[in-house]
Amino acid sequence: MSEPENNIFFSPVVETEDKGLRLDKFLSRNFPDMSRAQLQRLILNGNVSSDDNVIIDNAFKVREGDSYQIVVPEAIDANPEPENIPLDIIYEDDDIIVVNKPAGMTVHPAPGAPRGTLVNALLFHCRDNLSGIGGVKRPGIVHRIDKETSGLLVAAKNDMAHRFLCEQFAEHSIERTYFAVVYGVPAPLAGRIEGNIGRSPYDRKKMAIVRNGGKPAATNYKTLQIFHNAAALVQCNLETGRTHQIRVHMSSIGCHLVGDKVYEKSGKTTVPLPATLKHKVNSFPRQALHAATLGFIHPRSKKFIRFECEFPQDIRELIEELTG
Questions:
Q1: In angstroms, rounded to a whole number, what is the distance separating the alpha carbons of residues 255 and 248?
Q2: Which helix (H) or strand (E) segment is 194 a member of?
């Protein structure tokens, strides 16, 4: 068991001898200071996740190579307040709502971000029609994308939909396509990046490709446009959904995302560009990453549905500047 960061605990990686154990049993083995009943409540309340995928089934069978994150709520866990924040709704019915999240919006309340989140906006829009499985701070939330990443996210409006969607995310059967603007040009121009992703041993705020432990991760990419031989527009399709997967995998081949201040220390391109353009690229305020496609089986109809959304204005303008 790793040391907790604030109220967040990280389990060890599941070894061969433990694969197939119930999640609550695996966690109770590794967190002896927590009772099994407490751990079961945390699971049912949506406080246990693998990568960014919430697991809400105590009987979920753990998988070799995976690890789990437990968020222990603070003693006083205030209810988030509904806020009249505009939402870009792509699709909505009685079971689900699909939104195009803007960059800069946190998905759910957390220390330092108690308001202005997607959850606050959903509570206002959906009123009482959100799944309660995620707990008071994360109603309806079945997956996340980073605060500074824009794009598609689905939320559940009832517990049936929540469980059905969570199963698909846990099985990595969700279709997800991202577009990224990266420094440099990938070599080869298309390919598959593999490498176990885990917490960086040097910086606990970062993920990294690790030799020991971590979780298997695979990203398929192809280069769509090359700009001045200094940057590129890349399409990434995820086989798995690990935390920061695209940012880590693209960095591993020397193509850091434009604007990514975490995985590119300088945050700047060293390839010669016209001075004005170079300044615009290097001052891009967030990682240039957009979740453009989301496909899954609908929890009620059991039919596959797929949604797409266009680039937001900032990435569109960045591409236009680089193309010119």
A1: 10
A2: strand 190-194
- CA dist list (Å): 311 to 102, 112, 252, 275, 308: 11, 28, 25, 25, 10
Whether pLDDT at 257 is above 90? yes
Nearest 5°: the CA angle 172, 258, 318 is 105
**CA 39 – CA 45 distance, rounded (Å):** 10
What residues are labeled active site? 146
- Class level of CATH domain 78-171: alpha beta
Please check whether the domain covering 8-71 is classified as CATH 3.10.290.10: yes
Write out pLDDT tens, residues 41-71: 899 888 899 887 889 899 999 998 888 999 8
- Start-end of H helices in the chain: 23-30, 36-44, 118-126, 159-170, 245-252, 275-282, 313-323
Reply yes or no on whether the pLDDT at 25 is more than 90: yes
- Check: CATH 3.40.50.300 for 176-291+316-323? no
Predicted structure pTM score: 0.78
The Cβ of residue 227 has, within 10 Å, a number of other Cβ atoms equal to 20
Which one-letter amino acid corresponds to residue 242? R
Domain(s) labelled CATH 3.30.2350.10 in the chain stretch across: 78-171, 176-291+316-323
Where does CATH 3.10.290.10 sit in the chain? 8-71
Q: Is the pLDDT of residue 33 over 80?
A: no
Q: What is the pLDDT of residue 74?
A: 63
pLDDT digits (tens, 9 = 90+) for 129-167: 888 877 777 788 999 899 999 999 999 999 999 999 999
The predicted structure's pLDDT at residue 3: 41
Cis peptide before 32 (omega within 30 of 0): no
Q: Length of the chain, please?
A: 324
